[in-house]
Amino acid sequence: MNELLKVVLSLSLSGTLLILLLFLPRSLFKERLSKRWQYYIWLVVIARLLFPFAPETNLMARLFQGIDRPTEQMEIVSPYAQQSGIANTIQADETIHGQNNLHSEQMEPAKLVNSPNRNMVTMVWTNIWLGWLVMALILFIRKITVYQDFVKYIRASCVEVADIDLLERFGKLVERKQINTTVELYTNNLISSPLLIGFFRPYIILPTVDLSPTDFDYTILHELVHFKRRDMFYKWLIQFTLCIHWLNPFVYLMSREIGKVCELSCDEAVIQELDMNGRRAYGDTLLNALGLGGSYRNSLVSLTLNESKELLKERLDAIMNFKKKPKWGIIISLLLTVILVCGFTFLGAYAANGHNQTMRDDSGMGTVSLYTNSAEIISFQQGEQATTKEIAISIKENDVKMQLNAVADGDSHRTLEVIDPSGEVVRTYTFNQDGFISGSQEYLYGNDMIMVTDIVYPGTWFVRLSTDQTPTDETSVSAKLIDPFVWGFTSDTEIPSTEIEDEQITDNSLPFTQMYDYYRTYEQTKEDIQNGYIVNTGVSFSEQTMPTITRGGGTKFYVNHDNIIDISITLKNLIDGTGRIWTPDSFVSFEIYDPTGKVAYSLNKEGKEIEDDVDIDTELAVYPGEWRYVISFAYTTNGTDPSDMKIALKYKTVYEDDIKWLVDNKLNKVN
């Protein structure tokens, strides 16, 4: 289903629930609350029907996330599940048989199943929004056309009032209502009731000027109240809402109710300063207006003194039973308004959907493997005529990022889009065989384009590939889920256990084993720990790239004795990419936090500062407790001078229980 139609349907359903919320208890407050409040409170409902703004968490967003596109379904299991013994799986319309674990080769492409019937259903389902849009446009254009025809018709037979006494009386009434705009007075014997037309140049049109002074005054006052309150704009706002939600019968019900309380609230505004005799005289004016003029009426586009005989009875009852509302009525009005606004917020709208990202547990930092096999999800082979393919990816894990690897053969442009469960395109990349042309947060390695999203959340995501490739071109896109806090950096916390050591080291998936000139294997890390290293990691890039790691919760280590830690930091040939297109602001940050959470050591460089070579050897006194270090950076390399970034923490005095903690909690820990 088109995302625009899903937005409209969510607004329609949300607005319907608010309409019911106002209608169901209406008998309780109908006579107890002011008609003015009953009139303007509907603006909250109209706002919900028209504007898809709401908090990230709301009922409609959750409901409409389940209405997904009828595309092929694919499931990618994250490294979390893989480390629990669950193999990487892809579920398409047909089950892919056979196991795919760390010993197996790269997964086969997802199988896409198409049939004429399915294609027809998909086409109808995808384009159903066009029918809704066409009907909405037709209705709105018709309303505008009817209004224009009505105005032309009325003005063509209008006669300007020339009676000086009436005009003076009319001017005093306009001045009494403190209206500074010029209001013109006309007569037209074709209309059935006095009416007001015009948004900025108002016309009050009377069926006749043969009215008693009292009827004249009250008629003009009634129409001036309509103008001063800008009821014409309100009325057209309702008409626009009807066009958008033309399929919703509750919106028509709301429109009729607003039209009714519009006249009731206008009557209330006129009579609130009148005594009983004055109210009786005003009621007589309404009765007398029934027999005036001709038979032409069009309540769709004008504001009339009398719209129907059915409404007139209710208006007369309200006039004769009018009482000024007590203060408790104001309090109840405010309370009901708050309740409705809360409903407005809670119900929300589909377009406002966001995602709630659960904060990552620090204990999980060292348990997520990035060395998972990629799975081809979309490909264009030579000779294919299709221009766009889309795949639905089911994400079931929290706190992961999606990494997409694209391989292109040919000069034609390709566009890759990542779409979140709400239908919003969150990443767009354009590339050819030579690399990226445009996009955001690109990571390049040779002819392979590596793209990493922000943290994705559980739900159905979509990846769409569009191309204008020639028959000789080819394109392939694979996907995997990775640790959100590490990309382009082999942290010492991703040490594989002895059970999966061989598979982790021999995995050839991009970018990790091929991109790094220097990273620690299982045996190297084991030796480091025996020598007292808490962390001994480094990254050297000989290719042009943009290594980035976002700030996470950090990595914990436990100190059992008073001790000294040797700190070694080397930075060389890092390039500031701040301000360049598609490049994040450059920085390097390394911090050590003591058991109280205070910063015990800190190195921070930003912008041009990172281009200065750094060679630090210093010491830090530590005491028993849980410590933590955090490494964050973003920089570029030029592909000519190999970059070098090394960070090491080493116990000066090596104690057996410290080594045992590192072995148990770092080297051999597997979730």
What can be said about the biggest beta sheet? 6 strands, mixed
Taken as a percent bin, the fraction of beta residues is 15-25%
Tell me the strand order in the biggest sheet. 1-8-15-10-11-12
Number of strands: 25
Task: Count helical runs.
Answer: 18
Provide the structure class.
alpha+beta
Shape: elongated
User: Helical residue percent?
Assistant: 25-40%
| Overall mean pLDDT | 75
Give start-end ranges of low-pLDDT stretches.
68-115, 352-374, 441-447, 485-518
First-last Cα distance: 39 Å
Return Rg in Å: 36 Å
Structural notes for this entry:
- The chain is of the alpha+beta class and 671 residues long.
- It is built from 18 helices and 25 strands.
- The protein has a six-stranded mixed sheet with strand order 1-8-15-10-11-12, with no helix packed on it. It has a five-stranded mixed sheet with strand order 2-3-5-4-6, with helices on one face. A five-stranded antiparallel sheet has the order 7-16-9-14-13, with no helix packed on it.
- The radius of gyration is 36 Å and the shape is elongated.
- Residues 68-115, 352-374, 441-447 and 485-518 have low confidence and may be disordered.
